[in-house]
Amino acid sequence: MRLKYHLAWRTNSKGKTYEDRYLLPLGVLPERLEASATEAEECALQAKVDALTARGLLFAVVDGVGGAPLGMAAAQKTVDTLRGLYVRPEFEPGAGIPTAREVLGRVYQANEAVFGWGPMDGDDGVAVTDGALRPKGAACMTVACLSPAGNVTLFQAGDTAAFVHRKRKGTLEHYTGEADAAGRSVRSYIGLGPGLRVDTFPVHGLVRDDLLALVTDGVFPKGLSSQEAVRQVLAESEGDVKAASRQLVERSRARGSVDDIIALVLCVA
Length: 269
Known about the structure:
There is one protein chain. The protein has helices spanning 29-34, 39-54, 71-83, 100-115, 227-236, 241-254, and strands at 3-10, 20-23, 57-64, 127-129, 132-133, 139-146, 152-157, 161-166, 171-175, 199-203, 211-215, 261-268. With 269 residues, it is of the alpha+beta class. The protein has a single domain (3-268), classed as PPM-type phosphatase domain (Phosphatase 2c, domain 1), CATH 3.60.40. It has a five-stranded antiparallel sheet with strand order 1-12-11-8-9, covered by helices on one side. Strands 2-3-6-7-10 form a five-stranded antiparallel sheet. α3 runs antiparallel to α4. The radius of gyration is 18 Å and the shape is globular.
């Protein structure tokens, strides 16, 4: 599956540290490829892109929970743990594709590490979610795993979300682990410990010009409060991932979101 993608973000308007994080498996390689000065450089960079793509690709947006003093650190730990799938020495081009089980294993590994940081000072004995203590670190995440065969699986914990816009049908699909928790406390997050439940959603039948958007709650529902508002942005972009990601961010801020904002949009090319 060939993809185009673009990420846009904006820090909160409350003067706090930006706590959202993201994972782009190819990093700056596509940009470097477009700017390559020689044919040899272009071939070398393309080989790196092809090798990574042959392993399967992970994209993620991770929201450090502001109520936890180590929310940003929890988000970064989640991204770093997932990125570890791309530095394993046994991976060779065309082999060692990350399976759903391996991705989930990395998510739970991050959860265990963040949970190990302990509860917030003064919170000993205060149960907040399924008997868990209020943690020092907490992060919500949406991860998209794309196999070389074009299969897509979403992994969710918390109130981040994914949207799939089917251009030919004009329809929008919404995926989130917090579908019925709008405006209430996040119930599942990295750092929860043994109570963590990661929701897994297969996405079937993506075709050319379909869009997949991964967003934090600064976009939905704190900015764009309805799925129709998200659909309009994605439909109006006409497959332009840069325009789509930027409009998701800009309209969210214009409609009152004061939170950290991040939007990652992928298009099937």
